[in-house]
Amino acid sequence: MKKILKQLLLLLAGVCSLALAGQAVADSRINAMKAYSAGDFTKAIKLFRPLAARGDASAQASLGEMYYAGQGVPQNYTEALKWYQLVADQGHAVAQLKLGLMHHAGQGVPQNYKKAVKWYRLAAEQGNTSAQVNAGLMYDLGQGIPQDYQEAAKWYRLAGLQGNDSAQLSLGGMYYSGKGVLKDYKEAIKWFLLAAEQGNASAQANLGLMYDLGQGLPQDYKEAVKWYRLAADQGIAAAQFNLGVRYFLGQGVAQDQKEAIKWYRLAAEQGDAAAQSNLGVRYYLGQGVAQDHKEAVKWYRLAAEQGDAAAQSNLGLMYGSGQGVAQDHKEAVKWYRLAAERSDASASSQANLGLMYGNGQGVAQDYIRAHMWINIAAAHAGDEQTKRFIELRNSMAKNMTPSQISEAQALAGECTRNKFKGC
Prior knowledge:
Layout: H1 2-37, H2 41-53, H3 57-69, H4 77-88, H5 93-105, H6 113-124, H7 129-141, H8 149-161, H9 165-177, H10 185-196, H11 201-213, H12 221-233, H13 237-249, H14 257-268, H15 273-285, H16 293-304, H17 309-321, H18 329-340, H19 347-359, H20 367-379, H21 383-397, H22 402-417
C-alpha cells in the first residue's frame, strides 16, 4: 500500500510540475507579447527566443516577423525565412503567406515564383485573404504557373467575399474585360462598388468611368463626378484627368476652366500623358490659363515622349511653325512621322507629314510620298477634314504625272495594310 501511495505521489508531483511548466510558458509568452506591444523589442526577442527553441509556433512566428522587420535585431531576411519556415511547416497560414511573399520578392532566397505560388496556395486554402489575392494575381499574370484567368477569378472571388477590397477591384476588372468570366458590366459595377465603398481609390475611379460612359447603368455625369472626385482626392491620376474633363465640358458640374486646369495639372505632374497633352492644348489656346506657347511645348513634349499621338502631332506643329520653340522642320517631320505611323494615327498628323514632303521641308521634296500620306489622311478623316484633305491631295496631283499618282495610290494601299508602319 505504501509503495502504491508513493507512486501516486510521484505521479501527482509530475502532473504539478507539468502544470507549473505550462503556466510558466504561458506567462513568458504573455510577457513577450506585452513587451512587443509596448515597443520594447529587445526584451520581447529575448523572451520569444527560448519559447521558439522549445517549438512554440507563436514565438517562432514572432521571431520571423521581428527579423523580417528588423525589430530588436538587425533586419535579416535569411533568419526570418528560417523561423517562418518552421511555423509554415506546421500549417500556420500567416507564415505560409510570408514565405510566399519572400519567394515572390526574392527576400532571403532567390526569387522563385513557383515556390511563391505553392505557399500562397497553402495559405489561401486555409482562408487567408491576402494569400487568396496573391494566388489570384499569380494566376492572372501567369507567374510561376500557367496563366489561368478562371483560376484567378476563383481566388479573387473567395477573397472578395471576405471583404478584401483589392480582390473586389480585381474581380470587377475581370467582369469588365471578360477575362476568366463572362463580360458583365453590372457584375463589374457590383464588385467595384464594394471596393469603392471601402475607400479603394482605383475602384472609385473605375466606377466613375462606368457612370461617365453609361456602362451597365444609365449615364450619369453627376455620379461620375462624385466617384472621380473621391479617387482624385486620393491621388489617382486618371480620375484627376477625367474630373478635369468634366469641369472643362461642364458635365455633372458647372463649367469651370480654371478648375479643369487644376485637375489636369495634378494628373500631368504624376505623368499622365493624356493630361499633359490636354494641358499643352490649354496653354496653346489660353483656356483657363494665360496663353503660353513655351509652356504648351513643355507639356506636349512630356506627353509625346510617352507616345501620345495627339501630343506628337501638336509638337510637330509647334516645330513646324516655330511657336514656343525655334522653328525646325526636321524636328517637325520627326514628330509628325511618329504620330502618323501609329495604328491609331490622327488624320491631321498624316496630312501634315504629307505637306512636309510636298513642300520639301525637313525632308527631300517628294510628291509621291506627299500624295500617299494626304490620301491616307483623307481616307479616315472626319467629314470636314476629308473635304479639305481631298483638295490638298488634288492640288498635289497637279505636280505629278499619271504614273506617279498611280504609284502613290499603290503605296497608300500598302501602307494602310501595314497599319502605317515603315511608310
